[in-house]
Specification:
Length: 340
Amino acid sequence: MQAETEDPSTEPEVTPGLVDKYGRVATDLRISVTDRCNFRCTYCMPAEGIAWKPHDEILSFEEITRLVKIFVELGVKKVRVTGGEPLVRRDIESLVAMLTEIPVPELAMTTNASKLRQKAGALADAGLQRINVSLDSLRRERFEVIARFDGLDRVLDGLDAASEVGLDPIKVNCVVMRGVNDDELIDFAEFSRKTGFHIRFIEFMPLDGDSAWKKSNVVSLDEIVETISARYPLVEGDRRGPAAEYAFADQAPGSVGVIASVTRPFCESCNRVRLTAEGQMLACLFALEDTDLRSLLRSGASDSTIAEAIRGTVAAKWAGHAIGNKEFTRPTRSMSMIGG
Ligand code: SAM
Ligand code: SF4
């Protein structure tokens, strides 16, 4: 951990709460712990991958923990460890244990689950509570085309491992793309009913490695809900967070959620902020500006100076993104770099 070199008596007093100029309060922090990944999902990375950052440019576990402690003191309640692929970062369970110690009120992870069978027990022991697993097809060959990795069996086995060690809830994230996997909506609903895992369909967003995004390839919330309801009637639940949530009307296990960032943006109530693997803070997934917290950490800044930088980034958060409109500017980073 870096030494603190500033005189604490000259520091501004820190009051809790990360409020922006529209009155939204940031309580959800997503951290990309690595830019690396063993998959190359077509909507996230180019086939050849991206040039990985050298290790010394990536935040250490101690640096991440120090920042998370400051974020929690400022009012963050939920921390999601993501990437890139968090399970390819060596000894990731140690980071989970360090974050559990802070403590973080709610600690979650998003993973492609290809290494979850090996890691689930250690993660649960370290204090991980809940997990989201990305799974875009239940058909082996199609899975391989999308992820550019023949890994369906490993992912399904990873989901079983998460269930065996008691991670709860288990959510399955599926990015729906027209003409690619939109014929599997019913299969995913049946998978949810059978396993009790919560399926979260994500509208395809313009953050793809291959730049194939077109609005016409986005399968909307309305279309997803209509298709599933025609076979398995759905009952809309309370909207908590960005996902529209639906239970099965016949009270079968599982549920369906849709994250409709494109057709029903949740910017007005967005409570999220992000930290890249290199320590840049973003107030929005699509933000074009970032705040370099790593430089502050590595130049000996005090906690309250870092807290002020975090506050300033939240305060300056824009009203929202404009996906689909002509003024929308695609971020230069893919989701694997920003942390999904
Ligand atoms: N590697 C882990 C995984 O795949 O779960 C964590 C990182 S991944 C970037 C986090 C989430 O972002 C995944 O659920 C993925 O499906 C989603 N994602 C990535 N690119 C996306 C895009 N262009 N549109 C919608 N979701 C995207
Ligand atoms: Fe890797 Fe996740 Fe991106 Fe797929 S979505 S390439 S698993 S980081």
